[in-house]
Please model this.
Amino acid sequence: MKQRRRSHSRPDGFTIIVVMTLIVVAGSLTASWTMEAMRRRQATDRLHQQAQADWLMHAALGRAAAQLRQDPGYTGEVWAIGAEAFKPQAAGVAPVGPVGPVGPVAFDAEAAIEVQRVGDALKVTCRVRMPPGEARATQLTRTLTLDPPADPAQGAPR
Model:
């Protein structure tokens, strides 16, 4: 009786082990790339939210200045801004930034304006929080000290 010889020199199980190893390596690389992409997306979202908070801070300081011009006794307010104010379509521009399942992501925001009198000067503190009430919210605080306006009767300093 003749013995059959195998046509390949490696055992059949070796091929399965090599294929399984390649699948595991490919899966690990895919998972690693996906995690990196998610981290970059989160970083981009944070930068976008930081930029929105910075613009809101400028708007809150401008609002405080306008209120002080109208009412010298103005002491501040909490300015609540709804998410719809941050949607790009409301301003007539193309959507940019984080996009959720139904379009651009927008957050509620809150700007607390506080005006204190310190001698003759005014101390204006603005705190911006986006979104308000969340532990991981973007927060900015700026304080400006405004000297009293020069008295026109005494002549403006030059």
Observations:
- Residues 93-104 have pLDDT under 50 and may be disordered.
